[in-house]
Amino acid sequence: MNIVIEHNPSSIRLSDLGVMSWPKWSCQPGKYALVFEERETCYLVKGKVKVYSKGSSDFVEFGAGDLVTIPKGLSCTWDVSLFVDKHYKFDPPTSP
Length: 96
What we know:
InterPro entries: RmlC-like_jellyroll (IPR014710), RmlC_Cupin_sf (IPR011051), UGlyAH_Cupin_dom (IPR008579). By secondary structure, this protein is mostly beta strands. The protein has 1 helix and 7 strands.
């Protein structure tokens, strides 16, 4: 699935990335079908998620305090077990 999870990055790392200035997104527990048109980097302030790749029972799990990079083109289901509050940033689109 190529999701990269950095558990509990330092406050210096988060500051260097400018995470707290990124937009925020939140969601209630539930299942969400998502397609990532661009690579996303996000930092979970709250929550817990299992991400299943489309058509697969394999999953990765991450939660509060994790810095996560999701690859461009991933089609997946987010199974949110605890309310999610995250900062996120998409890579700028690349020219074809």
